[in-house]
Write a structure and sequence with these properties.
Blueprint: H1 2-31, H2 45-49, H3 62-72, H4 76-88, H5 92-99, H6 106-134, E1 135-137, H7 139-151, H8 165-180, H9 184-197, H10 202-211, H11 220-244, H12 257-265, H13 270-284, H14 292-297, H15 301-311, H16 324-338, E2 343-345
Antiparallel strand pairs: 1-2
Length: 348
Amino acid sequence: MIKTSFHHKYSYKLFYLLILVLSTTFVFCISVTRPGIQTNLKSIVPNMVYGIAYRPYMYRVLLPYIANKIILSIPEKTRITIAQVTYNSPTLKPIFSDRGWSIYYASEYYVVLMLMYASLWGFVFSFRYFFRGLFKTSERFVDAVSLSVILGLPCLYWPTTYIYDFTTLFLFTLGLATMIRRKWRLYLFVFVFACLNKETTILLTCIYAIHFFKDQKLKLSTYIALLLIQIAIFISIKTFIDTLFIHNRGGFVEFWLKRNLFLLVRPYPIAIYLQWLALGFLVIYKWSEKPLFLKQGLLILMPLLIAAVIWGWINELRALYEVYPIIILLMSYSIARILHVNINIKLS
């Protein structure tokens, strides 16, 4: 009986791992194919890797910097050989051609793709870590939600995928997970890399400031110190990056307010409104029971939307990656309650 139970558990884990690998790989392939990572000519991969892309895209420097260091460690002859093999390959050449990738920079694309894929897996594990930090439930429900959070990503891809998007998901979610577990040294370590990746990392500080204000388990002096450290790290890194790329083409931000106001007043199919209503219902259902951390974390949706209206595209859902894991967990609790899945909230 014990052997049979162990066999079933092992078989399930193996099967789930296979499904997760296939799903993650499939979702990744979609991201670099349709719409792809070459849609915006201001942030093409070679220019990002070599630090000459337009601002503000070049400000998201973490992944390009790592890719640059890896590329420079590869001998030039090896890079030329990689480009030649790619050009002569009946499989690889059409892939590069269809996506508008320059085969001359084949090594750069391969390195960036590997880093993006690793970041996507980092998001998978950081999301599970975040989930377990807030809820106590069955392992299979955690597995189901973790699979769903990956399969839901293509809905946010339009109109393009940037090479730093999955790194944003990974580091921001890991920041939330370490914050709720009060692992402050690890949190600050993650915070530094997240700041190098994208300026929206300051929203982690906003969540921290709100959630831990007057927290009984955190001394006021520690609260203030951690808050000031985060602000100092952010300002220092942001100033350094802005200065480093001050001569790059582009600007500090891009203004798209006029375009977005036009999109806001135009009519949309009723199915769109129904979809948003359904999502909204799952977010607010059993609201009073849900973790305070998630409810307060949802507040970052407001600055993200304001920023999208003024400086981004209001219909560019990838701009909401920072709040994505929070929304998924709010919805997951609702689904668990509707389906009578046993789920309990852990006290932070």
